[in-house]
Amino acid sequence: MPLLRDVFIKLSENQVLNDATKKMGLRFGANKVVGGITVDDTIERIKDLNSQGMSVSFDNLGEFVTRRSDAIHEKDIILNMINAIGENGVDASASIKLSQIGLNIDYDFCIENITEIMDAAKKHNMFVNIDMENYASYEDTVRVIDHLMERYDNIGTVLQSYLFDAKNDVYKYKDRRIRLVKGAYKEAPAVALQEKEDIDKAFELLIRLHLTKGDGFTSIATHDHNIIEKSIDFIKENDIPNDRFEFQMLFGFRKELQKELVERGYNVCIYIPFGNDWYAYFMRRLAERPQNLNLIVKSVTKDPMFQTGVKAVGALALGAVALKFFNRK
Ligand SMILES: Cc1cc2nc3c(=O)[nH]c(=O)nc-3n(C[C@H](O)[C@H](O)[C@H](O)COP(=O)(O)OP(=O)(O)OC[C@H]3O[C@@H](n4cnc5c(N)ncnc54)[C@H](O)[C@@H]3O)c2cc1C
């Protein structure tokens, strides 16, 4: 459904809709895939996931920030979340997008912000993952990560299997805690694989390499049951202990599979986005998998406004039929 995909990508980029939805609560079914608007709402969701045997990595929604004041505001929200996690004693780590805290504004400014976040996380013994964004920010992101890895041990990052360079990075970060993904952005054929089959193969290879080549911890982040099952077969064949890897999925997606993996004894970590900047994230998830549209349909049809509307239209239609009937008599 490429056309539908393009529609949702366009909708995700619409500034007016992005700004308007920031003032609303979670709507159109977004509450099924976004943890909450505030830190307090999200802490409740984290407690719930922890009680089901899953750990969590939180993500403060919003990226590609261009104003210093906005970057500082976002950094403060992240610090509040880290402190709330520490105070509530819940099992959660942080996922950070550097473009949200100044990477596209100024390198040193970004380093100042991320250092504050790293120090707060360290105080609460919390792991911090630096998310990987589009290829245009790859070099700067790696520069920040390597700077932080010299100073902190509670830091890791993401490798995107579609990038030609990913295999080298698996060796470079073989002793680190690394999240492996297929890759979410649209990248040029000069830097990234384009075909799903090739990306899947590369992803499987990176998983096997990271699980076996060093002392790192591997987070296998996917909703793809085929790749999950193939990884489990490989893990069993190679006697890799459960404390060397985990499966990661996005909040609200494939909940049955998440539960099943916990029941089979595997570590499962749920990536939980939160904040008022939920609209673009939600549209991108719909673009990725238009079947997710059923989230919207279900939520809208359950909405009392919609039901009142249906009843009103029904009453009008009945009235019109009755009038016709009596006029004929
Ligand atoms: C925890 C986490 C963190 C991530 N972090 C990053 C990051 O930092 N940078 C980045 O570039 N990308 C990131 N991603 C996104 C990732 O790169 C992929 O774009 C995204 O996960 C979609 O690919 P997939 O592996 O889940 O499977 P897909 O290729 O989307 O799906 C493969 C198959 O799995 C099944 N499937 C998938 N979803 C569903 C569903 N909801 N219900 C039923 N069946 C389904 C279908 O059979 C589908 O054909 C992250 C993903 C996760 C889960």
TrEMBL record:
- Domain Proline dehydrogenase: residue ranges: 43-291
SUPFAM superfamilies xref list: FAD-linked oxidoreductase (SSF51730)
The cofactor named in the record is: FAD
Decide whether keyword Oxidoreductase is in the record: yes
Reaction catalyzed: L-proline + a quinone = (S)-1-pyrroline-5-carboxylate + a quinol + H(+)
Question: Keyword Nucleotide-binding: yes or no?
Answer: yes
Q: Which controlled-vocabulary keywords does the entry list?
A: FAD, Flavoprotein, Nucleotide-binding, Oxidoreductase, Proline metabolism
Protein name in UniProt: proline dehydrogenase
Native source organism of the sequence: Salinicoccus siamensis
